[in-house]
Amino acid sequence: MKKNNLNNLLNMPEKSIKVFRTISKVNEILIQKYGIPFRPQNPPNPVDMLIATILSQNTNDKNSYRAFLHLKNNYRDWYEVAALSVSRIVREIKIAGLAEQKSKAIKNLLTSLIEKNGSISLEYLLKFSNEEILKELTNYKGIGIKTASCVLLFSFKKNICPVDTHVHRTTNRIGIVCTKAPDKTFLILNKNLPQEIAHSFHTNLIRLGREICKPTNQNCFICPLKNICRYSEKNFKIRTASKENKFLLLDNI
Ligand code: SF4
Known about the structure:
Layout: H1 3-11, H2 17-34, H3 46-56, H4 61-74, H5 78-82, H6 86-93, H7 99-117, H8 130-137, H9 145-155, H10 165-174, H11 182-191, H12 198-211
């Protein structure tokens, strides 16, 4: 996302008490269904988080986790990875797909951090506001608003809800937002997010999207949100229980 677009998004007045209340209700219902999601005591290192999130684009958590481990286990540290050629990084992360594009983004991020700060560290961001961190991180090539917001939520423990494909789809179906673009969904959710719920709301919505409210064949019969969901194409034909899918890469870095 271009910097100007991000500025425009962040400045839009989208506060709504109705959205705030619906988010609270959905969060409550999902906690009743799935519980409060696991969260490691020590938050992941923000550079690890950024690289894991780059690797997770357009693939499943299992494959991106394996690619992440290839880099972590085969090299001493991120400085060694920064010194690799793009084609070597491609070989290491192939399993995550889009390897060329992701390798360039990783190489660019690591070398830019060294050039800019003299070290591969993102701790300097801690003195910035959430919006400043988003602007700073999205300046790096290959890092969009979703990737940057994952650092805010998972590493810096901020009350920011990243919007991936599951969060975008489910919040539109439920009727919390009515948007075409995930970045617009991100803006509306985060302007109206109750305190300290981002992690459970985000994580449980992903689980709902993987297990029940799938892109096709949504299983509305067993959905805990069926009484408040406003989706016009609910599907009550499937009656079988869904398979658990609760491993979340970004909480296991
Ligand atoms: S009721 Fe159906 S469409 Fe609505 S959230 Fe649940 S699974 Fe998705």
